[in-house]
UniProtKB/TrEMBL annotation:
The chain crosses the membrane at residues 36-56, 68-90, 96-115, 559-580. It comes from Apodospora peruviana. Keywords: Membrane, Transmembrane, Transmembrane helix. It comes from the Eukaryota. This is Formylmethionine deformylase-like protein.
Length: 697
């Protein structure tokens, strides 16, 4: 009994330990793990149940030694753990309450297996781990400083692509004269394509297979990169009907007036969107007479400002928003409320070299970006454009700006090339922004768009193509997304490894490191394969996450079940131990066939007529021996008990008290065969209780 209890308790502990070891782990081999848990639960239930069954057997014998009950009640008592119907005998609840409670536990013990099986669940859970990721890229525009379009760098057989196209003054020939230089022409076709895709997608372009390469299959990931790149700094100059825009004061010390005011915007004017972005734009025709590749026909020396980046155009945008979108908008200027139905605003944006901190997130094959910090460092070209003033400097570029000393010249190669890259990025933004949206018939229907902005997220087609609220911030964000779209094509010169910003990544495989002592063009040899160990050099801090089926162990539920079961089993064991201690000599009883035969031997029960009234002896319902055997109903009403029986006439009284010396003499008489233990009818059997110092019959 005690061993069974300890075994059941140990299996419960093992069940807990097994489930605890699975908690929070991926739900692999679910059915196998649940089977293991069920085996442990069944073993625990079996151990605790058997311990109670043994205790029940001891209580049965204690009960029949102390109580006289009907034969029917004795039948139910001995069958209580085998026949559920036996528990319905009311006499048992009067004379054998403890035994019945133990039997009830045996019947409900299967609930241990049923209830504990539901404590190990499988649930979707997001796993988050701080680790490192391969394939993370960032931008480093210092590589534009040295990018040579004549000898482009090549990584994994793919050429690096600059952001700009170039013309040159260098004549053909092996020994050109000194003083030649390359000068800027326009954004490169590759960058124009990338910027256009980003504008149409309304988000930064994602590199193909970026999530798998960076996060790994089945994972999402987040990482933060920082880099220096251009950004537009926008300043509001006017807001409200009739407001007059203030001048834009620039870092160069100059001040410039807006080229238009809010009167051209709704409600006074007819435009819902008006953008002027070409003031001071670099002319792609620097000299009138040039040959192939932009080489001037004339001989040097060339004009001083030939190819110079004189200023960076300011973006001027005026727009009107509907004051209250929840209210009907007046359809005609003569309608009441027309003058208050729209809010005109005007702002200006300058191109600044800036420091970015950007968070990238890859989730379910989708990329999202967020600029968490943006610090404006300096203007890309620190001059103030002077409109309506001719340059008259011998070039075809009629742009004048102050101070001229801040012009950036082609002879300053590194600075010029990087500024040209910044200018190319800004040019693509201005290309999309420039133009107008006009409400031609003033009835707010059929707006006339003369701008590429209508193809971007800046204009809301659901609101009759009015600009979206907060347009200045959206313009800044739009430019940021154009710049970050460069990461979608790692062949761009400025794209580098985030872990090693001084090394270009190339557009080939995930890991394309090269030996710093070798030339970039031959970084990986002819086959373009990188060493496997090189990947570790480019691991970058990131946070990986994924939603997966995980094991979840309900410790509380399991131990509620086991605590109840163990306590009930322990109580049963205690009652069983008390029953054993009540036995003379502390003997353990059982209900084996041999024990029942031994308890019913002798002539004490021979006087009972066990036959049915038809005279047949223990016959079945069908009249044949071996059928369904029944004892006569009147016999079942007889009361019997277990105790001491005399081989003669019996004791003649129900209770006899003996002294300790008399009890000793009785034991000797039992040994000589004068008395024996067994079942007998009420009046024939004397039930004993062992107490310290005496025996009571």
């Amino acid at each position: 009994m005690f061993i069974y209890f300890i075994f059941g308790f140990a299996c419960a502990i093992g069940h807990h330990a097994f489930y605890a070891s699975l908690n929070g782990k991926p739900a692999n081999d679910q059915f196998l793990m649940l089977r293991y848990g069920t085996v442990l639960a069944f073993a625990s239930k079996a151990g605790l149940s058997v311990a109670v069954i043994v205790a029940f057997q001891q209580r049965v014998w204690t009960t029949v030694r102390r109580r006289v009950m009907s034969i029917a009640a004795l039948d139910s008592l001995f069958a209580a753990t085998e026949d559920l119907i036996a528990l319905l005998n009311w006499e048992l609840f009067k004379n054998a309450r403890i035994a019945i409670l133990l039997a009830v536990f045996v019947w409900v013990s299967p609930l241990v297996v049923i209830l504990t099986s539901n404590t190990l669940l499988v649930e979707p859970r997001t796993i988050v781990t701080n680790t490192t990721c391969p394939g993370v890229r960032t931008l480093n525009f210092s590589f534009e400083d040295t990018a040579d379009w004549r000898k482009p760098a090549r990584i994994d057989q793919l050429f690096e692509i600059p952001a700009s196209l170039w013309n040159t003054t260098k004549p053909e020939g092996a020994d050109p004269p000194e003083g030649w230089f390359d000068y800027y022409t326009a954004p490169s076709p590759s960058f124009q394509r990338t910027a256009t895709i980003g504008a149409f997608l309304e988000q930064a372009v994602m590199r193909k297979n970026a999530q798998v390469e960076t996060c790994g299959s089945g994972w999402n990931c987040t990482f933060e990169i920082n880099f220096t790149a251009p950004a537009y700094k926008c300043t509001e100059l006017a807001s409200g009907v009739g407001s007059k825009p203030v001048n834009l004061t620039q870092e160069s010390g100059g001040s410039i007036a807006a080229p238009f005011d809010t009167d051209i915007l709704l409600p006074k004017g007819k435009y819902s969107y008006y953008a002027f972005t070409s003031g001071g734009e670099y002319s792609t025709t620097q000299m009138k007479d040039v040959g192939i590749g932009g080489k001037p026909i004339s001989d040097p020396p060339y004009p001083k400002n030939f190819g110079a980046l004189r200023t960076e155009p300011v973006v001027w945008i005026g727009y009107s928003n509907i004051a209250d979108p929840s209210k009907p908008v007046p359809q005609n200027p003569s309608d009441p409320g027309w003058d208050t139905a729209f809010i005109p605003s005007l702002f200006a944006c300058e191109n600044y070299e800036s420091h970015y901190v950007v968070t990238f997130n890859y989730t379910d094959a989708m990329q999202s970006t967020k600029v968490t910090n943006l610090t404006f460092l300096r203007p890309v070209v620190n001059t103030t454009y002077l409109p309506h003033i001719d340059a008259d400097d011998g070039t075809a570029d009629n742009v004048t700006a102050n101070p001229e000393s801040n012009y950036i010249f082609p002879q300053d190669v590194a600075r010029y090339r990087r500024t040209a890259a910044y200018h190319s990025l800004g040019f693509m933004l201005r290309y999309f922004l420039n133009g107008t949206i006009e409400m031609e018939d003033r009835s707010l229907v059929n707006p006339v768009a003369n701008t590429n902005a209508i193809q971007t997220k800046l204009i809301d087609p659901k609101s009759n193509y009015f600009p979206r609220p907060g347009l200045a911030g959206l313009v800044q964000n739009f430019y940021e997304e154009i710049i970050m779209s460069m990461l979608g094509n790692p062949q761009f010169v400025a794209v580098v490894w985030a872990a090693k910003p001084d090394q270009q990544s190339g557009g080939g495989k995930t890991f394309l490191p090269f030996d710093e002592d070798e030339e970039l063009e031959t970084a990986h040899g002819d086959d373009g394969d990188a060493d496997e160990d090189d990947g570790e050099r480019f691991l970058y801090p990131c946070t990986k996450s994924r939603t997966a089926n995980m094991y979840h162990y309900n410790v509380r539920d399991l131990w509620i079940v086991y605590t109840i079961a163990i306590l009930m089993s322990l109580v049963g064991v205690v009652f069983g131990a008390m029953a054993i201690s009540a036995e003379e000599g502390g003997k353990v009883r059982d209900t084996l066939f041999s024990s029942i035969v031994a308890a019913t031997r002798g002539p004490a029960l021979d006087k009972v007529r066990w036959e049915k009234h038809d005279g047949s002896f223990l016959v079945g319902d069908d009249g044949n021996d071996g059928g369904s055997v029944h004892v006569a109903e009147d016999v079942k009403k007889l009361r019997a008990g277990y105790g001491l029986l005399a081989r003669g006439e019996g004791f003649g009284s129900s209770v006899i008290g003996l002294s300790a010396s008399s009890a000793s003499s009785l034991r000797q008489s039992i040994k000589r065969g004068g008395y024996y233990y067994g079942f007998g009818l009420e009046g024939d059997v004397q039930q004993i209780r062992v107490r310290r110092g005496s025996t009571v019959f």
